[in-house]
Amino acid sequence: MNVKSRLVLIGLVLAASLYFLWPTIRFYQLDADREPLASKVRNGKASRGDSLALARWDSTNGEGYRDAQARRIKLGLDLRGGIYITMEVDAPTLLVETAQADAIDETFDAVMAATRKEASMSEEAVIDIFVRNFDQIARPKGKTLLNYFDVGTLGPDATDEEIVAKLRRNIEDAVDQAMEVVGRRIDQYGVSEKSISKQGGRRIVVELPGVADESGVRSLLQTTARLEFKLVRNDQNTAKFFGRIDKMLAGKITSLDTVANKDTATAKADSSKGDSTDKRTADATDTNSKPSAGDTTGKRADSGKGKTAGDTTKKDTSGNPYA
Q1: Burial of residue 68 (number of CB atoms within 10 Å: 0-12, 13-18, 19+)
Q2: DSSP label at 111?
Q3: Integer Cα distance of 18 and 92 in angstroms
Q4: 223-265: pLDDT as tens digits
Q5: CA–CA gap between residue 113 and residue 305 (Å, rounded)
Q6: How far apart are the C-alpha atoms of 221 and 195, rounded to whole Å?
Q7: What is the pTM (predicted TM-score) of this model?
Q8: Which of 10, 166, 281, 283 lies 20 to 30 Å (CA to CA) from residue 28?
Q9: CB atoms within 10 A of CB 219
Q10: Is residue 258 within 8 Å of residue 252, measured between CB atoms?
Q11: What is the pLDDT of residues 58-101, one digit of tens each?
Q12: What pairs with residue 83 in β-bridges?
């Protein structure tokens, strides 16, 4: 290979390197301009001017920023540093909340105390620890899992194996749901290279490269959001009882509707009667308001205003002494 061919090959390698490195270089350039404003908004310390400036920046450079962010070279904790967090789902508490509240007694509390103590020092699945302690403490006293857990769809004849399988699925679902919640919260924080994985049966490992605000991340992930499920009895007696309540309420509503219709009819009759009485009263009032003969005479007598009875008598006697 001659010198010219080598130079061409080196040029192609450099061009390819620059092509693949350019999105990363461009991202860091844009991120250096955006991060001061974004950190203020994220921490709640931004003024109205900062928020408007960030909105204008995103409107102008947002598309290029997102494209460069998607195509840049991803750096892990070993290259960028960041935060590594291990979280654990409280499976014993889930077992307590799954049990029937009115069935929990001292025996069950003793089983849960032993389970918590052993689970804190072991990597074994919590449900396996619970079953072993239940067999050692509760079963010699004549207790079964059916005495404490109402698993609904399994029915009253469910075996301990079926109940254990159901409880195991509940714990696994709780861990999966916790991973989804953690992922959504980290997405709100703005970390694009997060790594969320399950460790064992109840632990969640979170890696956040390039994040230095440890207190902010902890407060975000430690926010409690509880979704509780309450088991409802669905036996035949309960269903019949609620059916009787429905029928009774339906009967009351029908009787109330009948009374309401009667009251409405009575009100209409009273209204019609009142209108007729008001009309007759108005006619009588109009008739009485017409001027009578006495009133007309009185008006005529008042026509001689300013003349008293004495004045009239004096005038008449002066002209006719016999009047």
Answers
A1: buried
A2: H
A3: 54
A4: 665 556 565 655 666 777 777 888 777 775 554 444 445 445 5
A5: 114
A6: 14
A7: 0.50
A8: 10
A9: 10
A10: no
A11: 888 888 888 887 788 777 666 667 788 888 888 999 899 888 88
A12: 208
